């Protein structure tokens, strides 16, 4: 059907096209009475305070999110909590998407109302997005309390929650559950060992390969032994290309899953009533810890809501909700010091020993390149 526009509407359309070519005009919902624009605010104070941010976010009325499964680290409770607290609807697209899918959505939908406002990215993907100039600098109120090694100096991204790579195992389907990467090579695990995604796209799978590298003589500077491990795992028939999800775990399609400890611990709770005895172990031979980073799309269609979402996630309420999902919040030490940590939730975290260390930006870039070039070859055939 062809639709003819009235002359005035046609002129309006031309004007809109002209504005789009030069950069969209500021959204009045995202701008204060004195002209402060949420899209350029680098903190709540910069926008006139949290109350002003809340008012503008409510006026926008919506937040576009992507790749946030409700059963991932308690995201369901966080989404519900934000919506209830502020009356702002969160639309989550492609909840089971990977970090790279989020970046692709930002680049392909620039200037569109359906572009993601906020991103939850694996560390290496957050670095990549920042390098591409896709992220808006913004400091939440608790920015100073985020450990120095877990945030971008320009505040384009910062860690929020994380954990350790673990081995989840269906004890009713697997006679003796593996507890180390070395165990995974044993012949009794044929066709049973899965990753949560493709490591060139998924932060959790990326972590799984790096943990395998650490267990086999690798380091933050050398992820290649991890690829070699999975090549060996594929060669002896133990590796399955089926990507583990709650559905595959429940159905028994991925009886052994290499994944973050908070996800595996969540499965243990979720499926207990369904007769699945899901055991979780952080392998002693390959302890790899990583956090996921929060970021704001530089061209977010709802910039005030995007910034308010960050403030909520990094509040004591938001951080403790991560804990209830078995994830370790970035502000855990600060909360403990302030006396606002949910101690009962903290006590339920999977046990680990030692202090976690993290790869540098350069090390992550190098590892990502090695993975991109070698993963398909390692598990092909």
Characteristic terms for this protein:
single chain; 381 residues; alpha+beta; D-Maltodextrin-Binding Protein, domain 2; 2 domains; seven-stranded mixed sheet; two-stranded parallel sheet; 14 helices; disordered N terminus
What does this 3D model show about the protein?
The protein is of the alpha+beta class and 381 residues long. The chain has two domains: 35-162 and 291-346, Periplasmic binding protein-like II (D-Maltodextrin-Binding Protein, domain 2), CATH 3.40.190.10; 163-289 and 356-379, D-Maltodextrin-Binding Protein, domain 2 (3-Layer(aba) Sandwich), CATH 3.40.190. The chain is built from 14 helices and nine strands. Strands 3, 4, 5, 6, 7, 8 and 9 form a seven-stranded mixed beta sheet that branches. A two-stranded parallel ribbon has the order 1-2. β1, α3 (75-86) and β2 form a beta-alpha-beta unit. α2 crosses α10, α5 packs across α14 (361-379) and α6 packs across α7. The radius of gyration is 22 Å and the shape is globular.
CATH class of the largest domain: Alpha Beta
Going by helix content, strand content and strand pairing, the class is alpha+beta
How does CATH name the architecture of the largest domain?
3-Layer(aba) Sandwich
Total domain count = 2
Oligomer: single chain
Summarize the structure in short.
The protein is α+β, with helices and mostly antiparallel strands and 381 residues long. It is 40% helix and 13% strand.
List the helices and strands and how they pair.
Elements: H1 7-22, H2 50-60, E1 62-66, H3 75-86, E2 89-93, H4 99-108, E3 118-122, H5 123-131, E4 157-170, E5 193-195, H6 203-215, H7 224-235, H8 246-251, E6 256-260, H9 261-272, E7 278-281, E8 289-296, H10 303-313, H11 316-324, E9 328-329, H12 332-338, H13 343-346, H14 361-379
Parallel strand pairs: 1-2, 5-6
Antiparallel strand pairs: 3-8, 4-6, 4-7, 4-8, 4-9
């Amino acid at each position: 059907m062809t639709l003819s526009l009235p002359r005035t509407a046609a002129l309006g359309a031309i004007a809109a096209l002209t504005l789009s070519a030069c950069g969209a005009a500021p959204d009045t919902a995202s701008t204060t009475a004195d002209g402060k624009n949420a899209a350029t605010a680098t903190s709540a104070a910069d926008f006139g305070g949290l109350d002003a941010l809340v008012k503008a976010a409510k006026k926008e009325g919506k937040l576009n999110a992507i790749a946030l499964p409700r059963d991932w680290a308690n995201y369901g409770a966080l989404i519900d909590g934000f919506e209830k607290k502020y009356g702002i609807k969160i639309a989550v697209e492609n909840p089971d998407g990977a970090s790279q899918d989020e970046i692709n959505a930002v680049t392909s939908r620039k200037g569109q109302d359906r572009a993601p406002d906020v991103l939850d990215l694996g560390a290496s993907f957050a670095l990549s997005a920042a390098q591409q100039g896709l992220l808006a600098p913004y400091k939440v109120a608790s920015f100073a309390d985020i450990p120095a090694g877990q945030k971008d100096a320009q505040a384009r991204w910062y860690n929020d929650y994380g954990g350790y790579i673990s081995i989840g195992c269906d004890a009713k389907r697997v006679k003796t559950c593996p507890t180390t990467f070395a165990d995974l090579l044993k012949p009794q695990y044929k066709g049973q060992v899965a990753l949560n995604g493709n490591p060139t796209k998924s932060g959790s799978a990326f972590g799984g390969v790096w943990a395998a590298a650490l267990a086999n003589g690798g380091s933050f500077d050398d992820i290649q032994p991890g690829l070699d491990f999975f090549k060996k795992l594929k060669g002896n028939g133990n590796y399955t290309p089926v990507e583990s999800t709650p559905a595959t775990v429940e159905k028994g399609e991925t009886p052994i899953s290499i994944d973050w400890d908070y996800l595996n611990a969540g499965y243990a709770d979720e499926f207990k009533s369904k007769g699945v005895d899901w055991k979780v172990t952080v392998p002693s031979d390959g302890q790899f810890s990583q956090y996921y980073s929060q970021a704001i799309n530089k061209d977010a269609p709802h910039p005030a809501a995007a910034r308010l979402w960050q403030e909520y996630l990094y509040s004591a309420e938001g951080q403790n909700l991560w804990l209830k999902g078995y994830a370790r919040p970035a502000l855990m030490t600060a909360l403990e010091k302030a006396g606002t940590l949910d101690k009962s939730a903290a006590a339920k975290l999977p046990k680990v020993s030692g202090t976690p260390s993290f790869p540098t930006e350069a090390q992550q870039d190098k590892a990502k390149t090695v993975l991109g070039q070698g993963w398909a070859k390692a598990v092909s055939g």
